[in-house]
Design a protein that fits this description.
By secondary structure, this protein is α+β, with helices and mostly antiparallel strands. The protein has six helices and five strands; from the N terminus they run H-H-H-H-E-H-E-E-H-E-E. It is globular. It starts with a helix and ends in a 5-residue tail after the last strand.
């Protein structure tokens, strides 16, 4: 019965499932090979060479979006966001490039991406860091799981 009904339908109606698949595939491919790099698990701990943080103090990780726009702007460098903290007199123990995981983001030129920078700072400076645009990485957690992964810094 269904087969007979399909024979009478116009060609474009029979294959309407193809267009959503084509659109989904094009969104996954995107403008760059960032997804491939993430899938291959390329990581690099881009930590700092000098630090003014007392090792005995309590430290916390904070993050900031690097401001990248797909196909247009690679975003701020790790050093730029680290300097943003240092200029506010917030000592930084470690810094890394990272990507938010578990988030659906369309791969399309002109849209934001999932690249962030994470920095380890003393707990006593969290409020001050939030005032400069940083947030604790715990706000990225999803059901208690870490929702970011460290990556190689593509732009420094």
């Amino acid at each position: 019965m269904i087969y007979a009904m399909n024979k009478t339908l116009p060609f474009w109606v029979k294959f309407t499932w193809v267009w959503p698949a084509v659109i989904a595939l094009s969104l996954l491919i995107g403008c760059s090979d960032k997804a491939t790099e993430l899938a291959e698990g390329k990581t690099l701990a881009a930590s700092n060479p000098s630090t003014n943080v007392d090792v005995a103090s309590d430290l916390m990780w904070v993050y900031i979006d690097n401001g990248a726009v797909q196909c247009e702007y690679s975003g701020k460098t790790l050093l730029e966001t680290r300097t943003q903290l240092s200029d506010s007199n917030i000592p930084v123990a470690q810094s890394h490039c990272a990507q938010i995981t578990g988030a659906m983001v369309a791969s399309q030129c002109g849209l934001k991406d999932v690249n962030i920078h994470v920095h380890q700072i003393p707990n006593s400076h969290i409020k001050q860091a939030r005032g400069t645009g940083f947030e604790p990485v715990t706000s990225l957690s999803h059901y208690g799981n870490k929702s970011y992964t460290l990556t190689e810094c593509g732009n420094g």
